[in-house]
Design a protein that fits this description.
Layout: H1 40-46, H2 51-56, H3 65-76, H4 96-109, E1 114-119, E2 142-149, H5 152-157, H6 165-189, E3 194-197, H7 206-212, E4 217-218, E5 225-226, E6 234-241, H8 255-262, H9 264-268, E7 280-282, E8 285-287, H10 292-301, H11 310-314, H12 323-334, H13 342-348, E9 365-367, E10 370-372
Antiparallel strand pairs: 1-2, 2-6, 3-6, 4-5, 7-8, 9-10
Helix pairs in contact: 3-6
Length: about 375
């Protein structure tokens, strides 16, 4: 719940340790821009991961009726990312500090869960569009990161890779896309260029923007940013713009040390795609490596569910926003020694195990245009 007054944010982001640079090493002038087509899903679609994964790709989200609905809605937002800028700038929009607060409040009014602002890193802009292969040119100065929670109660109920998994992802993708499209259009009506970037039409890579916007740190789950308040249990959209905005600084809540000790996501990953080793330099930035082919093939080729989010489910930072868990979270942030006991305590309390009594969704699979109870339903 948001507090009225000085801070517009629903979580105590003002208490986080702010730094000049992300906790992950980045050699800014050497990071090479990538095409969106270099990602795991485009490679699966192209057949790089084998004929079976290529065959399953068109249906791996659509085979469950709820995730299919959400993906269809996201597709409708794909063409709503840009538009005409008002010829005159609105009065009262020249102060970057006031603008930043106003834009955050607007995003929260539109039901964002967390928002951060940074200068757009040039290397975050993709070189080419995934679908058209057209070159991408974005010279906007600022980026607004928008996070949407995938729902802790559902995350607690599912086993990590059953029939609700893709619905959790695409619920967050679609809502964050809705917010980004509306926010970008609003900024354009104020007289400033702005473009929404969401799962159906990204022009930018999201992780570096979330890092610089102070929304999280890189974690062991590959090129993924983890929030101190939502853990990895979110999806994100981005609005790029030239509207003058005060920026947020990166944060450091001890996650690099925590992830070096935890290993729970690597231990429980169904495809064993997550590294058990140390961080490595990749494209001039530091990360824990992940086997993209194994991860993508598990998510696309899953025959006992729709997608996979096991790493998100079992992460010790995936917790509800209760007083108890806030205290534990702040302990992990501020007392490095306590991190050694975090995973033991997480396992002892049974976190990461499904709560079938909380299950609310239907296990259904579409096959040849008809819905069936999956054969794996009782397995």
């Amino acid at each position: 719940m948001r507090r009225l007054g000085v801070h517009p944010d629903p979580f105590p982001v003002w208490k986080l340790k702010r730094t000049e640079r992300p906790s992950t090493r980045i050699i800014d002038d050497k990071v090479q821009r990538k095409s969106e087509g270099d990602g795991g899903f485009p490679r699966a679609e192209s057949g790089e991961f084998g004929p079976f994964i290529q065959q399953e790709y068109p249906r791996f989200v659509m085979k469950h009726p709820l995730s299919g609905v959400l993906m269809d809605m996201g597709r409708k937002l794909a063409k709503m990312v840009d538009g005409t800028v008002a010829p005159k700038r609105a009065p009262g929009t020249h102060d970057p500090v006031a603008n930043a607060r106003h834009i955050k409040e607007t995003a929260y009014f539109l039901r964002a869960d967390l928002v951060g602002i940074c200068e757009l890193p040039p290397y975050a802009v993709f070189t080419h569009d995934r679908y058209t292969n057209e070159p991408i040119d974005c010279d906007h100065k600022y980026a607004i990161g928008i996070l949407i929670d995938q729902d802790w109660r559902t995350a607690a109920a599912f086993n990590g890779h059953d029939w609700i998994s893709n619905s959790m992802s695409f619920m967050s993708y679609t809502i964050s896309g809705f917010i980004a499209c509306n926010l970008a259009e609003y900024i354009r009506r104020l007289g400033y260029p702005a473009r929404a970037n969401h799962a159906m039409n990204y022009n930018v890579a999201v992780p570096p923007i979330l890092l610089w916007a102070g929304l999280g740190e890189m974690c062991r789950i590959g090129d993924m940013v983890l929030s101190p308040f939502l853990g990895p249990r979110f999806k994100a959209s981005v609005v790029t713009t030239d509207m003058p905005l005060a920026i947020d600084k990166p944060i450091d809540f001890g996650l690099q040390d925590f992830c070096s000790k935890c290993l729970k996501c690597a231990r429980l990953c169904p495809s064993q795609a997550i590294s058990h080793g140390d961080r490595e330099m990749h494209n001039s930035y530091e990360r824990w490596p992940v086997d993209v082919e194994r991860c993508t093939s598990m998510r696309v080729g899953n025959q006992h569910g729709s997608g996979c989010g096991t790493c998100i489910k079992v992460c010790p930072w995936n917790k509800p926003n209760t007083t108890f868990h806030r205290i534990i979270g702040w302990t992990m942030m501020r007392i490095p020694f306590a991190r050694r006991f975090a995973v033991w305590g997480d396992d002892f309390m049974g976190y990461g195990k499904p709560k079938p009594e909380w299950k609310w969704w239907m296990d259904l699979e579409e096959v040849d245009g008809e819905l069936h109870i999956p054969e794996s339903h009782d397995k």
